[in-house]
Specification:
Number of helices: 4
CATH superfamily of the largest domain: Extracellular Endonuclease, subunit A
Shape: globular
Distance between the termini: 122 Å
Radius of gyration: 46 Å
Helix content: 10-25%
CATH topology of the largest domain: Extracellular Endonuclease, Chain A
CATH architecture of the largest domain: 3-Layer(aba) Sandwich
Length: 299
């Protein structure tokens, strides 16, 4: 009897399949349905297919080299798409110059601060018509030239003909004034040729200086600058003249007397910068160069 019952169920199932349409609601569902054209549904129970688990390995973190390592090879990375090596430090720019080492020349010698800029070939002068004297002088000392010849014979002072006569200083303005004719671009730094030495004797390069300051105190820092040029190969020098709000005047042409002057020495490529200040006063007596050193950033 069991045999005949199984045969009948099997025959009936094939009959439904032959006459109807098989609809599977979900391949992962536990049931499937078979529906014939007469809307009779046969429900078949089946075990769900287990979803396979795929294990994805975690990516290996790239090796990070220590850029602060003392081993320079650790800062070099090879480009996989090129045979060229890339130095991670190659494009790091380090400004080795001091923050005070800006372009002193353009800061103090320009058309806004100077009534006239006089180019003497070996140095430049920022000239003031009211003071009838220089406000600044710039030059470069070449170490291999400053002691090259040392011409002993000195030329005469002369009026600067590039300046309109009404603004010129004259030799006689200093006579019996109590002040020396003090060089800004010093003759001892340019006595390596007749032309360079002669240029320093323009009265546009001269200011009234207290004799002791000119001959003993200021002259020492001038020599210091030459020695520094020999040591470093080259030194730029900017002499700044400081005038008071109501300066003293000497001579018929009224030449202003300064209250002091700065000497700025620098070589930007070597990160060298020193500044000095001197009073133009009889009270100035210290001839020690280091005693006159000042902070360049405060000028």
């Amino acid at each position: 009897m069991a045999f005949y019952r199984n045969l009948i169920v099997t025959s009936t199932l094939f009959l439904f399949v032959g006459c109807g349409t098989l609809k599977v609601s979900d391949t992962n569902s536990s049931t499937s349905t078979i529906t014939d054209s007469s809307n009779t549904t046969l429900v078949l129970v089946q075990n769900p297919t287990p979803t396979p688990t795929i294990e994805i390995p975690s990516p290996t973190p790239p090796k990070v080299e220590d850029l602060n390592s003392s081993n320079s090879d650790e800062n070099i990375v090879s480009d996989k798409n090129s045979s060229t090596s890339i130095n991670l430090n190659e494009h790091i720019i380090i400004d080795s110059s001091s923050s005070t080492q800006s372009d002193y020349k353009s800061r103090y010698i320009n058309s806004k601060t100077c009534n006239q800029i006089i180019n003497k070939e070996f140095f430049e002068i920022c000239y003031d018509y009211k003071f009838k004297a220089a406000k600044a002088v710039f030059y470069t000392l070449e170490g291999d030239l400053v002691n090259e010849l040392n011409i002993e014979e000195r030329p005469d002072f002369y009026e600067e003909e590039t300046i309109d006569e009404q603004y010129r200083a004259k030799y006689s303005d200093y006579t019996n004034s109590g002040y020396d004719r003090g060089h800004l671009a010093p003759d001892a730094s340019f006595d390596w040729s007749e032309e360079s030495l002669n240029a320093t004797y323009s009265l546009a390069n001269i200011i009234p200086q207290v004799p002791k300051v000119n001959r003993e105190i200021w002259s020492k820092v001038e020599k210091y600058a030459r020695d520094k040029a020999v040591k470093l190969g080259e030194v730029n020098v900017l002499n700044l003249v400081k005038y008071g709000s109501n300066p003293k005047f000497i001579g018929e042409d009224k030449i202003a007397v300064s209250i002091g002057f700065y000497k700025i020495l620098y070589n930007k490529s070597l990160n060298y910068n020193e500044c000095f200040y001197y009073l133009n006063s009889k009270a100035e007596s210290d001839d020690n160069v280091s005693s006159h050193k000042v902070n360049c950033s405060e000028i």
